[in-house]
Amino acid sequence: MTLGTLMVRNLRRHPLRVILTALGIATVILAFNLIVTTVRAWYAGVEASVPNRLITRHAASLSIHLPLAYRDRIATLDGVTGVTYANWFGGVYRDAKGFFPQFAVEPASFLGLHTELAMPADERQAFLSDRRGCLIGRRLAALYGWKVGDVIALKGTLYPGDWEFVVRGIYRGTDAATDETWMLLRWDYMNERRQQSDPDRAGTVGWYVIRIADPSLAGRVSRSVDAEFANSTSETRTETEQAFQAGFVAMSGAIISALKLLAIVLNGVTLLVLANTLVMAVRERTKELAVLRTLGFRPRHLAGLVTGEALLIAGIGSALGIAITIPASHFYGVLVAARLGNFFQHLTFYPSTLLLSASVTLCIAVCAAVFPILALLRDKIAEDLHNAG
Amino acid sequence: MTSPVVEFQRVSKSYFRGEQEIPVLKDFSLSVPPGRFLAIMGPSGSGKTTILNLVAGLDRPTQGTIRAAGLAVSQQGESDLARWRARHIGFVFQFYNLIPVLTASENVELPLLLSTLTRQERVKHVHAALGLVGLKDRIHHYPRQLSGGQEQRVGIARAIVSDPTILLADEPTGNLDRTAAESVMALLSRLHRELNKTILMVTHDPRAAEYAQETIHFDKGTVTSS
User: Residue B61 and residue B80: Cα distance in Å, rounded?
Assistant: First the structure.
């Protein structure tokens, strides 16, 4: 027999109470995991950022475009090893829920800079050869059942009119963080139609993507790009791709902060539920614990006993929570997709989230054990032997 | 001359209820030589149990010093006292105080978890202790499956399994019928005789006190006769 035997047997005294507490913890873990998954989905773009890429946009607003002529001037700057450009296309497929990111790009240079987008060579070539062609991500293709050769009809919003693109290739990300829900169409095709419908805005780009020789040059190159266009009609703002993506996330800052706060509150609930259970359990066994102290068990033994029980309950709750999180996250993804369309492209459930929630819960278990342990050690043995039970 | 195994020197103990002081022991002195079986008798509330608690370091005197098994008990910290208790004190309670979720053998094994004995050695000690109290056939029984007398014998086995210097018994027959009480007292008497244990027993039962070598009567915090 060990003290561990006693911990396990103690849990069997009130199985219903232990089960209800563990279920409470499991529910909190489920909610915590779904919240963390949602917050991570928001940050997916930031995580996917490549450190040696910079983004140059109009200093005033992303909605104001830059002249195409900037490309060649940027390319000559020290530390720059590649430049490409893109426009946000913003078309709608079928209805408002049919939203997914669409970028009009200069195909060769864009794919040259975004090496994380992988596709068969023949599909790449087909995209480069067809002005009406497009590339789509693997997840996007799976979502709508698109395959190479299909025609995608979009309703233009920023670029009005009906647009049709032929799927020439389906890319996959070379790492897990790569967004596989993009649609890449050709900037020259878009610009050609724009010259007819909106000639004033033709020949402009939404932003430039700059590849630099070394991530450590980011600050210097950013400054030199912005200095190059200072005091022009279109001043620029250059930042790392990560900072650019983080700027988008910051627009939803209040919601994300609320979700993070909710996650903390949920852990507070776990703390209170577990502490309550432990306080009750210890209070019921005051006399037994006094007997253990009489037998020579030291305060650290009792602390270990109570902490061990807390960890066991939290462990059971964590295991249950993890078990229900895996299928629940799938249904959550389906539910979010049904309600919000493709708003979260990266609503992916990561095993590390499970590890995080279980670790947080076990840490909370240790904290929850502090309350009854302190109360227990404040008690006088003789009084506990005399009064309790 | 053998030095006493338990010694109280002018010990006073008071409890406080708010501002009100309730004296329990008044200038109490006691010297118990090794191997003595001492019964302490007195009415409820006379301070008998307080003496045992003070010997075991479960409570602290308001004044005076207490030495037991070579240690100045009244001057030690909680952890040191716990370590000392594990080695030198065996406690027998009136209400047995067995852990209900542990079997008889597991209850007896509890104090040995604090020792450096291996699992096999612990099992051997447990079997020996339960054999000594005549409960070798009840080792896998839980307390609820035992009679009151059997529970108390398991309690005694738990108290002696680590071979303590002093055995403290607080009303060991107080919750037993006469037959069970006599059986338990015969057992304590045998432990004293055969193992030469020093036993301090608090009781209000004159029949139980008859098993002791010496009896002191106690009332209102002072010894009235011995």
Answer: 17
Do A331 and A382 fall into the same domain?
yes
Nearest by CB to B58, which of A5, A10, A294? A294
**Domain assignments of chain B as residue spans, ordered by start:** 6-97+165-225
Encode A57-114 in three state secondary structure: EECCCCCCCEECCHHHHHHCCCCEEEEEEEEECCCECCCCCCCCCEEEECHHHHHHHC
- pLDDT per position as a tens digit, A55-95: 999 999 888 999 999 999 999 999 999 999 999 998 988 87
User: Within an 8 Å CB–CB cutoff, is residue A378 touching chain B?
Assistant: no
State the smallest CA–CA distance between residue B208 and chain A in angstroms. 22
Regarding whether A104 and A202 lie in a shared domain, the answer is yes
| Domain coverage including residue A309 | 3-44+252-387
ipTM of the modeled complex: 0.93
Task: Domain B6-97+165-225: state its class.
Answer: alpha beta
- The minimum CA-CA distance between B32 and chain A, rounded to whole Å, is 21
Same structural domain, A29 and A112: no
**Residue whose pair of structure tokens reads 């794919």 in the numeric block:** A111
Q: Is residue A239 part of a domain?
A: no
B14-26 pLDDT, tens digit per residue, is 988 888 888 888 8
For B159, the 3-state DSSP assignment is helix
Q: Considering the entire predicted model, what is its pTM?
A: 0.72
